[in-house]
Structures are given as C-alpha cells and as structure tokens.
Amino acid sequence: MKEKQRPGDWMQTYTGQVFWPLDPRPEEIFIEDIAHGLSNICRYAGHCKFHYSVAQHCVLMANMLPKQYKLEGLLHDASEAYICDIHRSLKPFLLNYKGIENKLMEVIANKYGFSWPISDIVHTADNRMLATEKPYLMPNNPKPWNLKNKSFTIKIEPWTPKRAEKEFLKTYKEITNG
Known about the structure:
The chain has 178 residues and is mostly helical. The protein has one domain (28-176): Hypothetical protein af1432 (Orthogonal Bundle). The chain is 46% helix and 2% strand. The protein contains 7 helices and 2 strands. Helix 1 runs antiparallel to helix 7 (161-176) and helix 2 packs parallel to helix 7 (161-176). The longest helix is centred in the C-terminal third of the chain and has 18 residues, at 120-137. The protein is globular and about 50 Å long. The mean pLDDT is 94.
C-alpha cells in the first residue's frame, strides 16, 4: 500500500532520521537531535557578544526551576531544533509560524511528558532568563527592553556547542533518571 502524502517536505536530522516539520510524529523525534540542533543555534539571531546557544539557555533555565518543572524548562524551546530560533520580535509576523511551532511542541510535549503550552512558572523563568542574559550577551543598550522580570543571580559564560550538547543530554538524563 502506498504511504499517504505528508505535507511539506522532509529534512535530515543529526542522527540521520527523516523528519517532516509540518507533520511531526513522536517516533521521529529524538533527544539527541534536539540537543545537537539546539547546541548549534545561537540565541538573539546571533547578535550577541559570543556564541550562546539555545541549548545552554535551556540548561541554565532548567537548573533554576523546581524539580517538577525542570523537564518542561529544558525542552521549552525544543521545536527550534527542527524549525530554528526565530527572534521574538519577528515571530508574530511570520505567516503560520506560531501554528507550526505549536503543533511541533505539542508532539514533543506529549512524547516527553510535559505540558504545552508551557506553564506560567516556566514562562516567567524564560523571561527571567532574558533579563539575566541581556547584560552578559548584548553589546550595548540603544533602547530599553521593557523587561518586567527580575534576573536570576547567575553568571553567563560561553559554552562551546559541543559542551552545550553534552550538558543538555546530561541534564536530560538527570531529570529523567537515565
């Protein structure tokens, strides 16, 4: 029997899988692909003082959360491993980007057992990370960012993509007990 046509087109992942971003399926999502992809994607569209990966952001944020929210915090940006990190200021203007992102995140959340949309505590932690990251990552302040959340009291130092991937997988294993 011929396989039903899937929407869009496929991409190859780091682990050599075939993945359809417009038709995500749990059996085609792997934590190794998420860790590797996020470790190579720089936050802030790359406009920061040094390479600061989405993976590092997720690990640091997960470490700031209570135990029951750590997995959700670690994986809150997991869709970006498949559809890239789009800057907050641009996302609302991209036709159906949020729909694609939400569908993918629902599949990821269901596979790994956390809530989507993210809980208020994780959303607040994400905004607190933004306030934490700004002074370490951004070269100057041409306009206020209108940050309403207090920053975390951590220092941000650059990790290589290799380290970010390793730390992401280590954190995932610690949270999930292997």
